[in-house]
Amino acid sequence: MVIESWRLLKWGDVLCLLLLAALWGVLTYWSWAQPRATRVRIYQDGQVYAELDLMAAKTLHVTGPLGETVVEVASGKARIAADPSPRQYCVQAGWLQQAGQSAICLPNRTSIELVGHQPRAYDSLSY
Amino acid sequence: MTASVTKRTAKHTAPKRIQITPQDAYIARLAAYAIVLSVLESGIPSPIPGVKPGLANIVTLIALERMGWKAAAWVSILRILGASIVLGGIFSPGFALSLAGGVLSLLVLALCQFLPRRHFGMVSISLLSALAHTAGQLLLARLWLIPHDGIIYLIPLLSGMALVFGFVNGVIAERLLRQYPAQAPASIANAHTQQTH
Fold first, then answer.
1. Shortest Cα distance from A97 to chain B (angstroms)?
2. Across the 127 residues of chain A, what is the mean pLDDT of every consecutive 10-residue run?
3. CATH class label, B21-185
């Protein structure tokens, strides 16, 4: 049945499929090639707590109202390794790599944000 | 006096018949099929909201091939209205997205009529229309619902799905069209009785 289905195609269909697949490849490259982050900014209670270079491997313990949030930085990426928040959303966000990404541990009032060379396109975000 | 009253009401209630051509009836049938497909499809769980196979598009393609662009436009718009009434989402953002996708895909179908049909079959048309559908939805979402460039991250996923489902739907439409060769719309309405022998 699969071979039969291929016979339904005219050569224009195959051409169309190949062209569109190529276009999809270009589109994917363009969409996902966002500027890489160079630094990570750590916020505690709304204040910038630290700003680290992403290339330097480092583990940082930030104390918030609930306890310690552990921020891990390694070879161009950063994550929240551990957090006392009940739902663990910021830990589950995993490794962040691109400029503009962030992980927010709201109960412990701690967040990390990756920044690149270019300034942010927006002033602030509100939820 | 009473007689004149009845006479007058009789005159007024005499229904003014709308002429229903066999084409109208066929469009209504196809739109009904498309609505059923849309409703069935909404019952299929999807890992990503908004990613649907778009099976109703098969019906639009058949309408385009059999009766031309105008009929395809009717079927598509009736399907969007009908399905959102049945599913209860009329005039919701989801409805607007569906309409934006439908309208852009119809515009592309209008252009597809200029494709040399000797070399390009339903699969090409289906692929282009599926991509246009996704593009229409993404454009409206970017302009209205999520005015932020973060939506760009979704383009590869959604357009990839459009390619896969556009291809599959195109193959199904091509198969159906070859299996049931063209008949005049009037005789299609009687297809059941003809198939029994």
1. 14
2. 76 94 93 78 91 89 92 90 91 87 90 80 68
3. mainly alpha
All structural domains of chain A with their residue ranges = 2-32, 39-115
Among B112, B115, B124, B125, which would you mutate to test the A interface (most chain A Cβ atoms within 10 Å of its Cβ)? B124
Instruction: Report residue A22 CA to chain centroid gap.
Output: 26
Report the top-level CATH class of A39-115.
Answer: mainly beta
Q: What is the CA radius of gyration of chain B?
A: 21
Q: With a cut of 0.85, is the ipTM above it?
A: no
Contact indicator for A60, A70 with CB cutoff of 8 Å: yes
**Domain boundaries along the sequence of chain B:** 21-185
Residues of chain A contacting B149 with CB distance shorter than 8 Å = 121
DSSP secondary structure letter of residue B47? S
Residue A11 contacts B where some CB pair is shorter than 8 Å: yes
